[in-house]
Every structure is written in C-alpha cells, then in structure tokens.
UniProtKB/TrEMBL annotation:
<dbReference type="GO" id="GO:0005886">
    <property type="term" value="C:plasma membrane"/>
</dbReference>
<keyword id="KW-0066">ATP synthesis</keyword>
<feature type="coiled-coil region">
    <location>
        <begin position="22"/>
        <end position="49"/>
    </location>
</feature>
<dbReference type="InterPro" id="IPR000711">
    <property type="entry name" value="ATPase_OSCP/dsu"/>
</dbReference>
<dbReference type="GO" id="GO:0046933">
    <property type="term" value="F:proton-transporting ATP synthase activity, rotational mechanism"/>
</dbReference>
<comment type="function">
    <text>F(1)F(0) ATP synthase produces ATP from ADP in the presence of a proton or sodium gradient. F-type ATPases consist of two structural domains, F(1) containing the extramembraneous catalytic core and F(0) containing the membrane proton channel, linked together by a central stalk and a peripheral stalk. During catalysis, ATP synthesis in the catalytic domain of F(1) is coupled via a rotary mechanism of the central stalk subunits to proton translocation.</text>
</comment>
<dbReference type="GO" id="GO:0045259">
    <property type="term" value="C:proton-transporting ATP synthase complex"/>
</dbReference>
<keyword id="KW-0472">Membrane</keyword>
<comment type="similarity">
    <text>Belongs to the ATPase delta chain family.</text>
</comment>
<keyword id="KW-1003">Cell membrane</keyword>
<dbReference type="InterPro" id="IPR026015">
    <property type="entry name" value="ATP_synth_OSCP/delta_N_sf"/>
</dbReference>
<comment type="function">
    <text>This protein is part of the stalk that links CF(0) to CF(1). It either transmits conformational changes from CF(0) to CF(1) or is implicated in proton conduction.</text>
</comment>
<protein>
    <recommendedName>
        <fullName>ATP synthase subunit delta</fullName>
    </recommendedName>
</protein>
<keyword id="KW-0406">Ion transport</keyword>
<keyword id="KW-0375">Hydrogen ion transport</keyword>
<keyword id="KW-0175">Coiled coil</keyword>
<keyword id="KW-0139">CF(1)</keyword>
Length: 186
C-alpha cells in the first residue's frame, strides 16, 4: 500500500472507530447503516460533493457548513453529523469514502456478516443472488452481504471477492489463461 493511501486509511479508521463506538452505545447502528448507504450514493452521484471534500481551496468553515447542511437534509444520526463536522474542522473530509467503507465493515462484523464484492457479466437476479449468498455462507461460515456490480467485459461467469480471497470464474480470465498457455507452447 502506498504511503498516502495508508495514511488516509489510518485517519479513516480512527474516525470510524469513534463514530461506531458512540453509535453502538446509543443503539443507533441500524440508522447509521442506512445513513452510510445514502452518503455513499451521494458521493457516487455528486461530482460537486466529491470536489468539495477534496478541494484545498474550500475553507474549513465552508466545508463544515456544507456538511452540516447535508447532515441535516439527509437526517444523519448525530454521531455521524458530529464526526463530519470534526472532519471538516480538521481538514480530513478527503477520507470520507474510506470512512464509509470502514464503518460498513465494522457494522457488518458487529452483525456477524461478511461482505462479498461480486462482479458479473449481467445483473444477478434475486434468485441467483440468494443462491450465491447461501453458497458463500456455507463456505465462509457467516452471513454474506452481496455488493453486486456489472462488467460486461467478463463475457460470462463471476468474480467474487470475500475478504482477501478471490474466486474468478469469468470467461475473460479463462480466455486470458488459454492465451498465455498458447504463448508458452509456441
């Protein structure tokens, strides 16, 4: 991991630990989880928000005011609102995407769940997702929450990442493997 990335994840982890601990004490983890989904969606969809959290030109006060307005509009739990306010005050909003990921992981661990990143050539149906979750649960031993994405370049099959393990059954990887084998022979 590069040094700036490890610094960012360390900063995010400290804020996530504090927000998670306070939310758990106040029994607002379920609401926090919903807030995280909304916040992640806002980060993905809003170029302005991404620019704001990464801009060195925007002042601390302006960032704090914007984050307070966003927190109020999105009805974020007080722990999250206060955390975002403190992050703005300390010029740490650039780690917001890592913070969301850290908090999601902490909540999942608290619930006894593990998250699986699944990439498929076509969108998974509900039945397929449920069957995959059941199969992964049998293999991992915990409830599995599937985060599905679509990548048509896979041609077919799946790429599944659970923790540090990756299972790649995509046709693209099989074709690449075959191509490499043919290069070795010829």
């Amino acid at each position: 991991m590069s040094e700036p990335a490890s610094i960012s994840s360390g900063i995010a982890e400290r804020y996530a630990t504090a927000i998670f601990g306070i939310s758990k004490e106040s029994k607002s983890l379920a609401k926090l989880e919903t807030n995280l989904n909304d916040l992640a969606q806002a980060l993905d969809e809003s170029a302005d928000l991404s620019a704001l959290i990464n801009s060195p030109v925007v002042t601390r006060d302006e960032q704090g005011a914007v984050m307070a307005a966003i927190g109020k509009k999105m009805k974020l739990v007080p722990e999250m609102q206060n955390g975002l306010g403190l992050m703005a005050e300390k010029r740490r909003l650039f780690v917001l995407p890592q913070l969301v990921a850290q908090l999601r992981a902490m909540i999942a661990e608290d619930k006894g769940e593990v998250s699986a990143e699944v990439t498929s050539a076509k969108a998974l149906t509900k039945v397929q997702a449920d069957k995959l979750a059941k199969t992964l649960k049998a293999r991992v031993g915990k409830d599995v929450k599937i985060n599905a994405t679509v990548d048509e370049s896979l041609i077919g099959g799946l790429v599944v990442k659970v923790g540090s393990k990756m299972i790649d059954t995509s046709i693209r990887s099989k074709l690449n493997s075959l191509q490499n084998s043919m290069k070795e022979v010829g």
